[in-house]
Amino acid sequence: MSKRTLKLAIAVSCGILSWLLFSWIPVAQSDYVHYFRPATLDWMSGTVRLYTDTPGFRNPPWTVLMLLPFALIPAWLGAGLVRPLTVGSVLMAAHTLSEGRLGRSVGGVLTLFSLPMLNALYRVQLVGFVVLGAALGQVALRRRSPVLLVLGLLLVTVKPQLSILLASLWLWIVLRDWPARSRWCAVACCAGGLIGTLVLFGPRWPLDWLGESHNWLDPNHPALISSPWRATLFLLPAWTPVLLALVLGLVGGSGVIRSCGRSPLIAGWAVSLCMLLLPYQHSFDSLAILVLALPPTAEISLPLACSLYVLSFSQFLHIFALPHWLGAALPVGGALALTGLLWQQGRRTGRLALGDWHAHAESDTETPPGGRSSVG
Questions:
Q1: Whether pLDDT at 364 is above 60
Q2: pTM
Q3: What is the pLDDT of residues 105-135, one digit of tens each?
Q4: Domain spans in the chain, listed from the N-terminal domain onward
Q5: Helix (H) or strand (E) run with residue 239 in it
Q6: Whole-angstrom Cα distance, residue 167 to residue 149?
Q7: 278: Cβ–Cβ under 8 A, 6 or more apart, which residues?
Q8: Is the dihedral of CA 223, 229, 235, 239 positive or negative?
Q9: How far apart are CA 376 and CA 293, in angstroms?
């Protein structure tokens, strides 16, 4: 048996074993049972209309297409599949967003053993879809692959409140830097997919979705105990997170532009800024910041990565009767840290480009043997 076959057999065996183990975790209190699975099955039966007849379901309509294979089997087995998918997405993102073994191992292990990870697994949340999509999207930018980009967009937009800024950034980079053929192929695939949803789910679904998702802009929502907007209600003016996001976006934008979106820090940076822009955030949503920020940060500064990991525990300090607003420490800290790293990368890239320009200019002014100077 070849090594590749042996590794594949081990991976399949571990996947099946983890599926069975995760299936034994209770699902009665999970969001999968209360929202995701009922909305998928009801839509498939053709008796209801999404959002109008499925209260509490606020994800885009293509989410039900992704959940359909999970919903067709018993709830405990379907939840058991979503959970290892989340774990696999974390490991894949750690491998994709880090070029060295330190970032992959430290970032992956710390994320797997974090409270947001446990919360997402218990609630059977769909953060793993977002993480997987972010990893695929960053690979698509490096390879300039329209297929991977569209797949990444479909996955990250399962939770638009986390990814709307990241998806917009990807599309801006595509229109700005990709070759014409790849650019128009990506645009055509996105437009075709959107038209397909209007045919499949009805032309009114965008309005129905906006009507159900209006509380994204409500910082007083009782479930938002860890949102940065909720924190400002006790300390600062309500618009403070938006102002902070705009400032950090301008500071870190130079690194994004100079790297053409290929820096592994960009996915975590965009998600953390999105958590500052939109009030509707939950504690398990911060799993996306951890897994997208820790691996590349650990490659640059291990103490900074460990500090972000420690901040992830602040979202659960309300259990010990501490203020709820402490839960905003991770989104704010992650946004500040990643912006600083992107700004440093932008300055370093600018200095290298300036050095190359000076070297090229000096080579042009050198007098060739037996000839005149090339300048003047």
A1: no
A2: 0.85
A3: 888 889 988 888 988 988 999 999 999 999 9
A4: 16-354
A5: none
A6: 10
A7: 161, 164, 216, 217
A8: negative
A9: 51
